[in-house]
Amino acid sequence: MDDDKTADQHVIAAAHHLVKALQARTTLSNEVRRTLADLDIHLAAMTEAKEDETTSLREIEGRLKSAQTKIMTLHSDCLKIWDAGPFELHEYLQNVEEIRTIIVSLENMVSNKNRKQNRLANQAHIVLQMAMVRLQEEVINILVQSKQCFGHEYVSFHSREEIVTDEESMMVSIEDDSADGTSCMESSRAESEECIMDLVHPGVVPHIKSIADLMFASHYDKEFCQVFIRFWKDALHEYLRLFCMQQISIEDVLRMEWTCLNFRIKKWRKATKNVIAFYLPSEKNLFDQILGEFGSVSSTCFIEASKDAMLCLLNFGQAVAIGPLRPERLFCLLDMYDLLRDLCQEVDALFCENHGNFIKMEYHELLKNLGDSAKAIFLGLGNRIASNTSTTPFQGGGVHPLTKYIINYFTLLSEYCDTLRFLLEDRIVEDSGGVVDELARLDVSSEFQCPLALHLQSVASMLESNLDKRSNLYKDDSLKHIFLMNNIHYMVQKIKNSKIRSCFTDEWIKKHIVKYVQHEKRYERITWIPILSLITGYEKSGKAVLKERCKNFSIAFEDVYKNQTGWTIPDIELREDLRISTALKVVHAYRTFVGQVKKSLSDKHIKYSEDDLEKYLLDFFQGSAKSLNHHWRR
């Protein structure tokens, strides 16, 4: 102001000086006349500009008043403008745009410190600021009303068979909780061809974009982004709650009971699949529709809106990955690994910008950790078998729970062969000679180069070694061979009839068929040769010897009957085959003996007929001990 006042004083002084100079002269030179003419033109132009500016400000004031009145009327008439309808929102945006245009016009005027100009500018800014606050509320209102239902069952999973273990026997049961037996790996890959869903009604997108364009043009871009990000961040967390995926600490995950954790993992898989394959691509598409014209703003806002939910999912996964390396966890880890590996391309596409790199890094780190943990459990299976020992023989000589556990474990692993082969590809064997020696000790052919097959055969050999040690706990050698026959037969049948057979070769199958048949023959030899010796080689025996032989055979048969009816052969076909084989030998020998004895002795000395023996042999290996009458008539 002081500078302007000083300048005015200089102009006034110069004007007085010019007037005095002109009064002192009667004639003017051409040069003086031209200078005075220029001065006259300049003064006229200044006067005209002043008049135009006054007219322009008057016009702007009228436009401002009209737009402000319409805006305030809509404010007072409508609690939410969108609720009144799209037309009212369009009218509101037009008037706010008018305010913005007025501000631009005032800013483009030559600054002459006009009080009215400043007043109008301040008034326009106040109205614009008020309108921007209202538009933030309108964005939220439109989104709330038009948000589409995105069902949490959009992608369904079928659980694979579960292995449930207890601490002592390592396994209690194997269950299938799926309705149709479809593996989750198969169903997880059966994706819908169209993965972009409408998160809001398509009809409202242009209206939201109009608000965004106006707020960005008015330099309220941060305010729009804040409300837009906050809404979708909350919406995504609400969606995750459908899957029980609230924030949970790693410590809480590690403390969870297995049943609870297994349930959570299934929910996690569904949530992760839905969020990455469907929800986030749909959300990114919406962000691009509304903010795509503003450069990197769209991707930045998308990452801000989605990062917390992604980190929630990834943190849960990391907690599972670092948990105890127990066998029952392997299938969940492989399911999680398969899922993340299938979704890698989607994640890389969603978070391709630099500011999304940290999510990609966390994602790939989790994928690696899940793979490492799964591989460690798989490769440690043999050690668990070796450490599973007992000092008590398994009652009845049936199929041991450990055998069921391991072989059913194998059959379930058949669903993951490709994944396991991939994980084992980078396994480095530092001492290849030592590995070959170990395989030779376990009687595993190293010619089969697939690491998965080699390890499965190695584990099977460790299981056989464990069963051999358990068989030595039986005092009865016959029962020892029944036990080994049952277990090796179970291994062969399960492996032969499953997808995992490809890892065991025909040679392995044939070799183990021979093994259980050998145990069957050894059982027959140990059990029945001593008994049959009582009724053979009698040709030159007298009546007293024949009577004693009849008596001793009956007693021996009754003892075997009492013991072996309590033994078990679970496989019906195997049980029948052994009964038939035994009957052919025993009944045939007994029939011949009885035929000869009847020539010398009366029927009262022969306690059992051939039909009796055949009938009683049917009671063997039923797992329910029975007794025959030991009373012997002399």
Automatic annotation (TrEMBL):
Keyword Protein transport applies: yes
Note the InterPro entries from the entry: Cullin_repeat-like_dom_sf, Exo70, Exo70_C
**Keywords associated with the record:** Exocytosis, Protein transport, Transport
Q: Where is the Exocyst complex subunit Exo70 C-terminal domain?
A: 266-619
Q: What SUPFAM superfamilies does the record point to?
A: Cullin repeat-like
| PANTHER family according to UniProt | EXOCYST COMPLEX COMPONENT EXO70E2, EXOCYST COMPLEX PROTEIN EXO70
| Entry GO CC | exocyst
Organism from which the protein derives: Anisodus acutangulus
Q: Which protein, by its recorded name, is this?
A: Exocyst subunit Exo70 family protein
What is this organism's lineage? Eukaryota, Viridiplantae, Streptophyta, Embryophyta, Tracheophyta
Q: What does this protein do?
A: Component of the exocyst complex.
Provide an example Pfam family for this protein: Exo70_C
A GO MF label: phosphatidylinositol-4,5-bisphosphate binding
Parts forming coiled coils: none
**A single BP term in Gene Ontology:** protein transport
* Family per record: Belongs to the EXO70 family.
